[in-house]
Structure formats: C-alpha cells, structure tokens
Write a structure and sequence with these properties.
Elements: E1 9-15, H1 19-24, E2 39-45, E3 51-60, E4 63-69, H2 73-84, E5 90-93, H3 98-102, H4 151-159, E6 165-173, E7 183-188, E8 191-203, E9 208-216, H5 217-222, E10 226-227, E11 230-234, E12 236-237
Antiparallel strand pairs: 1-4, 1-5, 2-3, 3-4, 6-9, 6-12, 7-8, 8-9, 10-11
C-alpha cells in the first residue's frame, strides 16, 4: 500500500445525512456496497457520459472522501455542488488534512502508470468516456447499481457500441514536454492529424516518459504516433 502524497494529492470530503444518497446518484461506482476497510476506484461524469474526475473513494469516521490530484478538487467540488443543494450534505476541500487522514487509512495510489491506472486532470476533464480509459475493466463502473449522472450513455456504450478508443501504455524518449491533455498525431495521406490524447505520464528524469494515452486500435497497431513538434520520434507501445 502507498500513502497519499500531501504535496500532490487532494481530498474532497462529503458528509451529512444524505452523503451516501448523493454519491450513489452521481458516481459510477457502487457506494452502497463500500465497506469501511476498502477503497474503490470511481468517476464523476457529466450528463453526456464524459469523465469529469477520477478518484479513490473511501469512508472514514463519519464521512466519505474522494482522493484525486489536488488540482481536481475545486472542479469536482463545483460539479457535485449542483446536485448537493437537494440533499442534506456538506462538501469540503479537505486536502490540508490529507496527511493526518492517510495515517488512518492506507490507500493505493491510483496514478500507477505501470498498472494502467489513469488519472484525470483539469486539462483532461470532460474529454473521455469511461470506456476510453478502461474504467469498465478497472471495476470503476457498476452497471447494476441503478441510475447515476451519465449512466444511460455509459450503459449504451457498454452493451451496444463497438468500442473505438482504448487506453494504451506507451513510452517515448524526447526533450519535448509531455503533458496530460496533449494531442498525439499520425500521418494520414501526407498530412499529420490528431489521433490520440495523452492521459497520464511519469517521467524518469532522463528524457524518458512512460505514458498512458487514448487512441484507436488501428493506430496502436501501426506504432507511428508522435508529438506535434517531432514527427520522427514515435511512441513505443507496450505489449
């Protein structure tokens, strides 16, 4: 287990009589079956089914906590507040207390590129459907919990649509900045076009980036994706 990093991780605290009811109606994961000894990957989506934020959900003492990048807490707070007005709940940015809470609850850090666990940042909020970033395979979506925001579109994608985009683990050796939200490109009929988006990265400090990106399956098979400013250096897809 890895404890949250108080410098980069943030916490959103949801408390009150209707906290569980509010979250059950908004999150992709099943809050009803969450126990006090576990944490669960989940997402908050907009009505179009696109992921606003991705987090680890856990219950501690009398409240629920959503662990996510610190920069995502204000955006997630604003999105949930639209619905919280109809419930007896209190939403609080608890990021400053993350170190104390982490001593009580051990959590897996979800930005683990090696295991294909993505994160959502302000630059990528609203860009992806849950299936684009493999949330259905990561058990971050409950398809039998009932309605939640975006559920109809997400369920239709799961049961009726042929998935077009997928999440892939790649690496690239470059001096260029590699950041979440950047487009990646391929050559098409002599011109370059955007054919994917960077989701998350780690950097080894030696110009090598491990990258999670979303693209179509045929683009991944071609192994010819590159950054806009460098058409000669390609992303290497992991087996």
């Amino acid at each position: 287990m890895i404890f949250p990093n108080p410098l980069t991780d943030g916490l959103l605290r949801v408390s009150g009589l209707d906290a569980k009811k509010l979250l059950q109606g908004q999150l992709t994961c099943n809050v009803e079956t969450l126990t006090g000894t576990e944490n669960r990957l989940g997402a908050l989506c907009n009505p179009q089914g696109r992921v606003i934020s991705l987090f680890r959900l856990f219950h501690h003492e009398d409240a629920y906590f959503l662990l996510m990048p610190r920069t995502m807490v204000p955006l997630t707070l604003a999105a949930l507040k639209k619905y919280a007005v109809f419930y007896k709940t209190e939403l609080t940015d608890a990021s400053d207390s993350i170190e104390a809470i982490s001593q009580a609850v051990a959590l897996e850090k979800y930005r683990d590129i090696a295991n294909g666990l993505p994160a959502i940042y302000p630059e990528t909020s609203g860009k992806f459907l849950p299936h684009d970033i493999n949330l259905h395979e990561l058990e971050a979506i409950s398809f039998d919990k009932g309605c939640f925001t975006g559920q109809e579109i997400i369920a239709r994608m799961h049961y009726k649509a042929k998935l077009k985009n997928h999440l892939y683990a790649t690496s690239i050796h470059t001096t260029l900045p590699v950041l979440p939200g950047l487009d990646v490109y391929s050559q098409h009929e002599g011109a370059k076009r955007a054919t994917g988006v960077i989701v998350d990265i780690t950097h080894d400090g030696n110009q090598v980036y491990n990258v999670l990106l979303v693209t179509e399956e045929n683009q991944a098979k071609n192994n010819h994706l590159f950054l806009e400013q460098d058409e000669q250096t390609f992303f290497i897809f992991q087996p």
